[in-house]
Amino acid sequence: MRARALLWASIAWALVASACSPAEPGEDAAAGRAAVSAPDPLQTGVRVRTVPVETGRLTARDEVSALVHAFHKATVTAETSGRVLERLAEPGDAVEPGDVLFQLDASRPRLELDRAVATIAARQTDLAHARRELERGRKLMERNAISEQKRDDLQYAVEKAESELALAVVARDSAKRALEDATIRAPFAGVVEDDLVDVGDFVTSGVPVATVVELSRVRLRAGVTAAEASRLAVGMNARAQFAALGGDSLEADLKSIGLVADPTDGTYVVEFWVENPDGHLRDGMIASVELPAPERDPHPLVPRGALLRREGRTAVFVVEGMGADARAFARLLRIGRSQGNRVEVLEGLREGERVVVDGHFALSDGAAVVPESNGRPETTSSETPPAP
Q: How far from 85 is each of 79, 106, 182, 283, CA to CA, in Å?
């Protein structure tokens, strides 16, 4: 029994030794070692995310705050003295040009007019008499019946009568105007904003009696910088948005651009006209106006996140090559306007080039990179992307 146990132990040790001895390297083993020892090109560079450069036009527009002004706003004043007898327009009433707002006591202007008319009649009589005397004097002068001095006196009397008649006509016209001014009328079509006097008040010339505004269209006035003013031209269209109207926007026509800067803030006043047929816009409202931008040529566009500062200038990292040969190189740019996340490149990039948008802060010029697009490594057309 003991000899049999020793025999089985010897066999077991032989089997173990046989299993642990190295096998001859075959093709499969060699391929396996090669796969383990071969470097993975996707693990040799900095992983970065890239996007291709596209060409397009930016439609970015500057916005400024503007104040709504009534297209016409007048403080109507009395042009003659008198007591208010009637108030014919109340605040909120729509009026047309010439509609009566107030009627003043016109008894005094009417008396002045009657007196002026009577004075004219008297002066016309005086003038007719002076002319007859002058004609008689000329006939006597022909017979040497009167002196030349007397004839000159008669001529002077005619000229004086003519002047006095002219003054009487002026007095009549003035009285007529005072009588007309006793009726205070609307200067233009609009709405009565406020009445400043009431029946029984005595007013004198120059006293404000009412405010009339026209809001069938409005003026938007805003201050812009010199750079913004240089890009604008009269006749351009813009959009004006009104928070007080729930964000509604209306078309605005640019009518004027200031030439003299406001001394308080250095801005230039621009004025837009906006139609207001529904009367929703009111004097004093605030608007946000998108300034119109002139048409620009297309340029390469890059995401704002791709930009870096190098050597005091704007730069990006451009990826050249594919796979294990991919390298990132710094490129200095000259940029233009921006809109949202996109920036216009005036010099330094071409359409189709790949710029780094994530991972560029860890890069140096010429560094090896593992570019990714949409979260997966970029490959050449002959390479097959790894299965997810």
A: 15, 9, 10, 31
